[in-house]
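Limitations
The structure tokens in this dataset are predictions for the assembled complex, not deposited experimental models. Users should treat interface geometry with appropriate caution, especially where small molecules or nucleic acid strands are included. An illustrative entry is reproduced here so readers can see what is and is not provided.
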Amino acid sequence: MTILSPGSGGSARKTIGFGRCASYASQKRKHDVATKSPASIRLMKDVNIAPFKFSSHSLKELNTCDARLREIMKRAIKVYDFSVICGFRDETAQNYAYDHKPQLSKFKWPNSKHNRQPSLAVDVAPYPINWDDPVKFTELAIVIKSIANDLCIPLIWGGEWRSVDMPHYELK
Ligand SMILES: [Zn+2]
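Predicted assembly:
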């Protein structure tokens, strides 16, 4: 949990030994400058983009997830618009996903990381959702993985699996 406390990045890096990871504090400063300076606020207003916000459904799903996933996704929504489709899956939902054609999960309850409480997996999709747009899913993955890397949180993207699962992210 140390790695998530504001300002603890430097010591977390030292403790965990992720030399490649930038410190939380330095990343936060860069992020603050990028998102809060008057120039960037003007830019966002001019082009009518970010900051984006989660819908109530997205927030409800995200709140079933592990704190590390919540932190990553809350940072990602500031720069890229997407929906949280699913966090925790109960037995009915998991077995429905398993039985669904095409199959939405390779696992029966309780073997998916979506079945832990809090959930160690989350499914997300670029907004507006187009399941047939792998480019948008890949753009979103670049954002999410870079944030996870900055926070030194090992994260797996299902888009890199042999049996591709573009919306899926899970903690290692
Ligand atoms: Zn999933």
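Some entries come with short summary sentences. For this one: Residues 21-48 form one domain.
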